[in-house]
Amino acid sequence: MFATHGIPKIMICDNVPFSSWEMKKFSKEWCFEIITSSPRYPKSNGFAEKFVGIAKSLLRKADPEKLYEALLEYRCTPISGMSVSPSQMLLSRKLRTKLPITQTELQPVVHKHFRDGLIKKQARTKLYYDKQAHVRPEFISGEKVMVSVGTQWEPAVIVKKHSTPRSYLVKNKNGRIVRRNKCHIRKTNIQTNKELNPDYHDLGDEWNICGNNTQDNGLYHSNNNPVNLNRNTSHTTSQNGYLYNNNSASSNPVYITRRGRNVNRPSRYDDYLL
């Protein structure tokens, strides 16, 4: 391929086998750069994945003995949304197929502005994609994160940002440094400079309820410091965690949830002693 089309400056490919030592040595000898896609993220190499889908479609539709004929027809078919075919973009001329064609149509014609149409088509596709997509957060070195491993999320630490877009080098719980895309990394509330209650680390700074303890008297704890959430001192707390209003004749109990929301006991239970 290099003898036919020349040596490229940059070659975008998969990690296996193009990230091997022999391939890196070959790229240095031939003076070109290899950029590999993100591991376990085929979207980062969408151009190659799209061509794989086209090749599979040709294999399904064409017989094995007519595969090269189907490939020739594909290269001579204009691209959707454009007026030129892949052969015209690469060779500046149409290829002769089994379909009838005049001799003048086979004359070489240089298409200079086809790339503008290609850029407009990609911009239109990006516009519709960005309507449902969102920007993922950036990470810094030393930040504690969660990394996707199969169907589970495991703790890890960001080592540094990779040279390729949207990729980071992370150190997993086994001490192994791997490369992962942003879609495989999530931020976590567990930071190096902040200690959280291990029983309620997923709740952030929310209050822990201790209403079942008679010695608390309705006090709620945060970092082992008792705090009275009820600014109105006319309430008392029973052992079942409900608050009773001493000034009210009906003494309608109110229960405060973990997130601080008041829950009134249904009126049908007024005749019962809880």
Automatic annotation (TrEMBL):
A single GO molecular function term of this UniProt record: nucleic acid binding
Signal sequence coordinates: none
InterPro entries: Retrovirus_Pol_polyprotein, RNaseH-like_sf, RNaseH_sf
Protein name as catalogued: Integrase catalytic domain-containing protein
The species this protein was found in: Araneus ventricosus (Orbweaver spider)
